[in-house]
Description:
With 64 residues, this protein is an all-alpha fold. It has two helices and no strands.
Amino acid sequence: MSVDLLLKIAGLGILVAVLNQVLSKAGRDDQAMMVTITGLVIVLMIVAKEISSLFGSVKTMFGL
């Protein structure tokens, strides 16, 4: 796992947190929740891609 991946996830988390706070203070709680859910889905897609790569490496390593 590279530092680049961690920085992407951390940056996205900070961006989502700031947008969530701004939208909540503006009284747009529904949109704040949608931003949070969207950020979570994006992070899960990034992690799923990395896990898929891990399984591919293990499969290649053991010749399965």
